[in-house]
Amino acid sequence: MGETDAQTSPVRTAAARVADMDAGAVVQVAGWVHRVRELGQVSFVVLRDRSGFVQIVYEGAAPVTSETVVRIQGLTAANEKAPGGMEVRAQETEVLGPAALDAPIPVAADPDGIGIETLLDHRILSLRMPKIRAMFQLQSEIVRLFAEYLRAQDFTEVKTSKLIGSGTEGGTGLFEVDYFGERVFLAQSPQFYKQAMVASGLERVFEIGAAYRAEKHDTPRHLNEYVSLDVEMGFIDGIDDLMDLELGILQHIFAGVKDGVAATALEQYGASVPDADALSRTPRIDYEEAKAIASERTGKRLFDLNPEAERVLCDWAEAEHGIEAVFVTGFPRKKRPFYTWPDGRQTASFDLLFRGLEITTGGKRIHDYDMLVGELPKFGMKPEDLGDYLSIFRYGCPPHGGFAIGLERLTQKILGLENVKAASLFPRDRKRVRP
Amino acid sequence: MGETDAQTSPVRTAAARVADMDAGAVVQVAGWVHRVRELGQVSFVVLRDRSGFVQIVYEGAAPVTSETVVRIQGLTAANEKAPGGMEVRAQETEVLGPAALDAPIPVAADPDGIGIETLLDHRILSLRMPKIRAMFQLQSEIVRLFAEYLRAQDFTEVKTSKLIGSGTEGGTGLFEVDYFGERVFLAQSPQFYKQAMVASGLERVFEIGAAYRAEKHDTPRHLNEYVSLDVEMGFIDGIDDLMDLELGILQHIFAGVKDGVAATALEQYGASVPDADALSRTPRIDYEEAKAIASERTGKRLFDLNPEAERVLCDWAEAEHGIEAVFVTGFPRKKRPFYTWPDGRQTASFDLLFRGLEITTGGKRIHDYDMLVGELPKFGMKPEDLGDYLSIFRYGCPPHGGFAIGLERLTQKILGLENVKAASLFPRDRKRVRP
To answer: Domain A15-97: which CATH class?
Structure first.
């Protein structure tokens, strides 16, 4: 491989750090050839690494082609036209990873000029596009900030099984798995497991894990596999405790992404996030009130909060409260799963709509065994359908509730993406199980 | 539900905090009834919450039974015999979650006196046992510390799909999923995805996610679904970079679990972890040398590093280097997947054995397209079998490598558990897909 001898060469410098160096320094950089511009006497190469870019200058032709991975040693030199005002005059170039010239999409192109299906078909390459890569650096920060906030509130992170013996939310929309000849399913959510962990005495738990929905519709709002940021909390008085907690989480995430690598992503997408003050003004409106507002704004009689209603409700919240977010509470019983705490014909439940899209569903759960068993027939269910899970409630369970935030939807709405699939590294939809 | 009015009652105090209060204070505690002892004139109730225990005193009979979730208001009183020297004399008791009396296992019992299969059959209840709960509070800390260390080294957390179109490590041992009528599989590891993310320009990535192995053997070492702590790093010179990184991770985890809630778990299991100095002495020995040492110590001629060899090698490392851990390097080609960097008849690969068990497999990967394609026939594979993944290497990939730590095995070895299944919240094995 001809690795450079560490004794005689400088340590690798991040591309973005070259700008901070003095002219005339010996420097070693390594990364991907982003662009090559040959001007005859001299050639300019833009080298890309995880920190950013640096301009490399060669006398004559450049010995490298696009996407080749190289290690370059050279001397720093001031150049006003170079990124950061400093370039590297190449002395030695070592190819670490050659690149074929038949790339189906050009990595240095603007992804906004390429259709989403093409970007996803060539995902291995499109993930190299700096703007797309930045999205997933932001996503990594969202995950970090979510966990950080909850741990500070004494929540414990759990990892529960995604292979379940029976459908817990009605049995529809589940992917089947052949488990040693037995038919099991991929979990739609960690719902019962997180409830079990509250009842186990952990009281406050969160999980960051995959969730699966075998829904056949293929829309810009849906993924068949997504990352669910799940929260469940015991000893709550009602859903206001949950909405307060969610606002705290979002305030922490939004404050956090204004710094560091995540801020770069916001900048690249021309995106911004609400500040803590604005978020704290998020209105909490009843389902019927939400329908009335949406009906008035759309001029249509609505029987449901459809995607159009979600958009106009966020417009309304922006106009009336200065925040593009609204909690809708009190969903009707028939629109919520059997385990949702009933409140007359409504339920102690909520959705959070943000920038026109539902990013969270949550609610208080039924924690009383007899009450839960009594509710089952209304949903066409029998205690046997719930297997072991009823024992959560049979042996002492505190009042509790929780919610889940879809990581990809949150990313989508922070950055203003048209399609949620763009916010999944390797999205799965009706037609796509590759790459 | 008769929720206590927040205007007139004190805020809930954690059970373990009562010991820090003055006598005569009005206090409200809430949790599970752990034990009830009735002495006629007076009754003692041990109340359990996520912080620990507090003793509640009732005049006459206690109005509660085991595992009932209650909120109790009362007055603190000094009592040398109470945990922490302070108890609560109950004034008001509100049942938040009643408990049936037919619990199949007693939560207040010592789990060590109950067989693992019984504990797992009644997992919803056995997770309430404070000693078992503590294990998962430790596990939450391991996850936190793993991520914290890697983020500090500029690694990005990724979340990749677990639904894959083809088997990437030979096609055996995969669970099949019915994906809208198409046959897909649950990923055995995020191997190719993490390699793709290194090549995408993130350079350094980690993933905390589920991994699936459809292996039929049912042993105390195996789980069919486990949490894999995956790491992949670009621009490495060789596997020493990877072993150094893993030692850094483990040093950070082991230092971290000596504090806070994780320390409680160590205490309950009578466990300890190696310090940073000891870990840094972990020897790195060649596969053939490891076989020779194991052969000598077992008195058997070994053709493989079997479980017995793993145990005696850790004994050897303890005796010779004062650390119960050893890196075994240079595994033969036929023992490693096709993507492992070859080194004559051996490979640039390693296992980490810790306390008698392999907890990590890692290695340098082939990053050169032509070399990788050239290796495939030796493994009976064709480029078409690899689908999109070859494009990782076709368009410029840096030298890289990585490893994965099994979360449950690490937990098992930290605490000295006999069976790895005990370290999974809801373990899946040949016969178990519930609860």
So the answer is: mainly beta
